[in-house]
Design goal:
Layout (H helix, E strand, L loop, with lengths): L9 H7 L3 H14 L21 E8 L4 H4 L4 H5 L7 H4 L6 H4 L13 E4 L4 E4 L3 H5 L4 E7 L6 H10 L9 H9 L9 E7 L26 E3 L17 H22 L3 H22 L7 H7 L9 H13 L4 E7 L7 H25 L6 E6 L3 E2 L16 E2 L3 E6 L7 E3 L1 E2 L6 E3 L4 H11 L9 E3 L2 E3 L15
Parallel strand pairs: 1-7, 1-8, 4-12, 5-6, 5-7
Antiparallel strand pairs: 2-3, 4-11, 8-11, 9-10, 13-14, 15-16
Helix pairs in contact: 10-11, 13-14
């Protein structure tokens, strides 16, 4: 017992701290050995139940891949190619303004064969040969449905649980709930890429990886696709590590005094940012050095893996982040918005993304990481079964389609070789086991050991959660 009025000397600290500093060192070692189980987050006692996944990589395909060209085999759609889709199917549903006034809506079958793959028989297009080869490792959800018909609100809905900006993103919620996952790299990292042809003008908004009303220490760290991945990590000339360390210690002391005065929690964020930047000065150069990667691994990701900022490069960087302790990697790739160039650009987009996506799954599996890493691949909605434009014209494509679409998942407690849900014979409406963005979010949190109804944050007089007041765990997709 330390008596009141006694100075807290080093001898007293060592003699009276419970179990001494050895327990602190042991605790630090244990945390390092079990990433994802640290208890410095809002869930002080750790996850609500035993997690199946400890880390997540979300391969978000901005622009919406065409489910009826890539995954959802619809013989009826091909049989009626060029004929009007029945009004009873469309049933007055709204689409984007690009086809809102279009009178002719001819059915268009898949532009390449969609065939059963592997022992599971999951249907995948010839446009995705690498994904087709790992079909038995994947779980396809063919009954996704959303409420949003335009890109930004639809993406925001998937990532934050609300179509309007301002809510915390999924990675921020996990950082808040589970705490820091490693000491020398961010817990939550976001990366972006786009098709080389720049075929669509989608914007990557910062709120896609923002912390919303959560403390900003939980927002994602954006890794850039050119130049230094993170700005301002380099010390100015004449500043060495020892001097920088001393400057940060003094600055932290001043910030701590300021916090005692104004009680602003964002001061903690400022201190944590300085500390993380200091550690990343050593960790990021090693992270981005691919020279020690086996040639067989680099070949698996494809030739674009050497082009900094490409989708392939980001997929390999995501694996390196995950194995070094980052919990949530949000990898966003734009270029799937084929309104007028379906017959040319879709094949290019598939070629750029197919091999790296499959390689990431295989790479994680080979390293023993797939079992507790959840991989998610999908867009914000699908594409219409009918044509946008004039059949046989110069500008042929498909419009946005929120009423049925497909995504796939792998690893991290997901049942492999399973196809969940179904759409109608046109791929227009979900007819079996619909899954909403809130259901997906609830399932992701469940796999990480979190009850989505119990992870909340009080803001402006009410308790918010990622899934708002919705969402159920999709049990059939769980292993």
């Amino acid at each position: 017992m330390i008596l009141p009025g006694h100075a807290l000397t080093r001898r007293i600290l060592l003699g009276h701290s419970a179990a001494g500093l050895g327990s602190l060192a042991l605790g630090s070692l244990l945390r390092g050995e079990t990433p994802g189980l640290r208890t410095d987050g809002a869930l002080k006692d750790g996850p609500h139940h035993a997690p199946k996944a400890r880390r997540v990589v979300y391969l978000l395909q901005n622009g919406a891949p065409s489910h009826v060209d890539l995954f959802d085999h619809k013989p009826q759609l091909a049989a009626l190619h060029g004929q009007q889709i029945p009004d009873s199917v469309v049933n007055g549903r709204r689409f984007s303004t690009m086809t809102g006034g279009q009178k002719d809506r001819p059915c268009v079958g898949a532009i390449r064969p969609i065939l059963p793959r592997g022992d599971s028989g999951a249907t995948v297009s010839d446009l995705l040969p690498h994904t087709a080869r790992i079909a038995d490792k994947l779980c396809f959800v063919k009954s996704m449905v959303t409420t949003q018909v335009n890109h930004a609100p639809a993406i925001t809905h998937f990532l934050t649980g609300n179509e309007r900006p301002g809510r915390p993103s999924m990675g921020a919620w996990l950082s808040y709930g589970l705490g820091k996952s490693c000491d020398d790299l961010p817990t939550f990292v976001a990366m972006t890429s786009r098709d080389q042809e720049a075929s669509c003008g989608q914007i990557f908004y910062d709120h896609y990886w923002g912390s919303g009303f959560l403390p900003s220490v939980h927002q994602g760290v954006k890794f850039r696709g050119s130049g230094d991945p993170v700005l301002y990590l380099e010390d100015p000339p004449g500043i060495d590590r020892e001097l920088r360390r001393g400057m940060l210690d003094d600055l932290a002391a001043l910030n701590a005094l300021r916090k005692e005065t104004v009680h602003d929690p964002e001061i903690d964020t400022r201190i944590a940012s300085y500390e993380m930047s200091y550690r990343m000065q050593a960790s990021v150069p090693e992270l981005t050095d691919f020279s020690n990667e086996p040639e067989s691994v680099l070949r698996m990701y494809g030739p674009d893996v050497h082009r900094k900022g490409s989708y392939a490069y980001n997929c390999l960087l995501a694996r390196r982040l995950l194995e070094r302790g980052t919990r949530f990697v949000q990898l966003m790739h734009a270029g799937w918005d084929q309104h007028k160039n379906l017959y040319t650009q879709l094949e290019i987009q598939c070629r750029d993304t197919d091999a790296p996506s499959a390689a990431l799954v295989l790479d994680l599996e080979q390293r023993g990481l797939l079992d507790d890493t959840l991989v998610i691949w999908g867009g914000e909605f699908g594409r219409t079964p009918f044509l946008q434009g004039q059949l046989g014209g110069d500008a042929q494509g498909r419009d946005h389609h929120p009423y049925a679409f497909t995504l796939w998942m792998a690893g991290g407690g997901i049942a492999p070789g399973v196809t969940h849900g179904a759409s109608d014979e046109f791929g227009f409406d979900v007819v079996e086991d619909p899954v909403t963005p809130h259901d997906l979010q609830a399932t992701i949190l469940h796999l990480l050991g979190i009850d989505h109804e119990r992870l909340t944050y009080r803001f402006q007089g009410r308790r918010y959660r990622l899934t708002d007041v919705h969402g159920v765990v999709v049990d059939p997709v769980l292993a």
